Each structure stands twice: as C-alpha cells, then as structure tokens.
Amino acid sequence: xxxxxxxxxxxxxxxxxxxxxxxxxxxxxxxxxxxxxxxxxxxxxxxxxxxxxxxxxxxxxxxxxxxxxxxxxxxxxxxxxxxxxxxxxxxxxxxxxxxxxxxxxxxxxxxxxxxxxxxxxxxxxxxxxxxxxxxxxxxxxxxxxxxxxxxxxxxxxxxxxxxxxxxxxxxxxxxxxxxxxxxxxxxxxxxxxxxxxxxxxxxxxxxxxxxxxxxxxxxxxxxxxxxxxxxxxxxxxxxxxxxxxxxxxxxxxxxxxxxxxxxxxxxxxxxxxxxxxxxxxxxxxxxxxxxxxxxxxxxxxxxxxxxxxxxxxxxxxxxxxxxxxxxxxxxxxxxxx
Length: 337
What we know:
Elements: E1 10-12, E2 17-22, E3 25-30, H1 33-52, H2 57-71, H3 74-91, H4 102-110, H5 117-136, H6 163-171, H7 176-188, H8 192-197, E4 203-204, E5 209-212, E6 224-227, H9 230-242, H10 259-273, H11 279-292, H12 297-304, H13 310-315, H14 323-332
Antiparallel strand pairs: 1-2, 2-3, 4-5, 5-6
Helix pairs in contact: 2-3, 2-5, 3-5, 4-5, 7-11
C-alpha cells in the first residue's frame, strides 16, 4: 500500500476551462477558478470515500507498524505490536477500517479483563494513532475512530517520597549496584529508561553532563541532556571505569538492569516500606522537591527533559495536595508590599 498521489486541477487555455485528470478520465470543472476548486474538493471527497472501502484493518495496521519499526524505538514498536495485535484479533483482520467506530474500541478494551484502566487507555490510543497516521498518509479520508465513548482514564501515579521516606527506602537497599541506580535517579530526576540505557560514550565527565543524541532520546527530535550533580558524577566515574563499553548501570551479576528486574526490586521494597513505590516515584519526587525549593518551572522542565513546560502542570500535580507549601506561596505573593 503506497501513498497515492492526489491529482490537481489544471487550466487548459484551448478550452478556457479548468480540468481534473482521474485515471483515464478528464473531468471539466468549469471556467470559474473558485467554482472549479470547489467542485474539485467535492470530487476528491467522493473518491477518498470510495477508496476507504478497500482498506482493511490488516492492511492498515501492517503498514503502520512497518513505519513504526523504521521510525520509532524497538520498545515503542514492541508495545504497539502487542496492543494492535490484540485489537486485530478482536475486531477481525479482514474488517474494513472505515466500518470501525470509537464505540468498537470501547467494547474491545472491556474484553481485555487483565488490563487496568491505564492499559485500556493506551490500547485505544494506539489504534487512534494508527488511524491518524493513515489519514496523514492519505490511506483514509478521515479518522473513523476519533471519538471514543466511555474511554477509560489513565491512572495517575502520584506517589511522592518525603526525605525521611527516601532515606528509609535506601536503608533497605544493601547492594551497591541497585543503590547506585536509585541514587542516580534521585540526584538527576532522569527517566528510569535513560538511566538504564546510559553508556560511557554518552557521558562527558569533564562537563558533568550526559548527552543522548536525538535518535536515542525520547521523541527522537532533540538531544537529551542530563546535568550531573557531584554525587551523580561520582557514580558515573566509578561505573565508567568498571564498564567502559555498554550500559554502565548493571546489577550485581554484571547484567544490564531491565524494567522487569527493577520492578521486581521495588515490589520487595513495597513490602518493607508499607507504601506503593516504583522507579518513576523518584522522578515525581525530584519534580515536587524542585518546585518546593523554588526552582522555576522552565528550568525544572529543562533539567527533566520535558519538551513542553506544561508537562509539569499536567503530570506533577502533587503540590496541589501540599497545603503547607501553598500557604507559604500565598504569603509570598505580596511580600514586597
């Protein structure tokens, strides 16, 4: 399925009129340019609607995943393949893409009994993105699943560790390998995935920074720079000496940390702490503590690698529950008067 090239109106001087070539047909659009283009848009809408009838779910998803594999990370490709294969099995691979509605997506995720609301939300999002891609490539005339009724909401993971809880968490970590990983997350506020994938080649020890090129950064548009505190820099120096090639964050067996291995360790910590904890809670805590300590949102967004400053407001709403902090901020609004 290659992207079709849309024909465009052209003016024939010999006829003093506008025409449109569709296949072997040459259609007269009239002499008035404005009316000709209006008629052109009507004809193209009819043509796209007819073409939509031939695109099946199997065709759409296969070509979308081919594009994802070439243009996105292996992890993104794996997640989308998993979710979209579930959808294709449920809806039927030979079903016409134009016959699917948002209501079908709502019905589908309710059959996935092992999925929580966040996973269901992500599953619907994967299908909607595939349709958006198809519209952009002109395989479909419009997104038939753009409106999804009763879409499950994502669960907000707003766990934040206080300083005392952070110290207690570390007291239960006996091996240096896992402790280094946690300390690095704590001092940089980086994403757990970034810490796991960090190699010596990414680290400039003299400048005190970690640089991921756009091809390895989230979103693949801009390079990601992680600024190292003295503690984070010491961790990098030690681990770069030990692992000059490949990832430097490794477990006690010398194997790179995986997402599942980290989650397993946090499950054990949860039992000891009596509180739900996970790797991203350390990043949440970094954001919250930075705002409490007066770091402005623009600077904090840069440190955390956000492409949009509004991400702080959307994903780190913990301060709305911190009444002491809000009272202090309320008092400081007019403190110069």
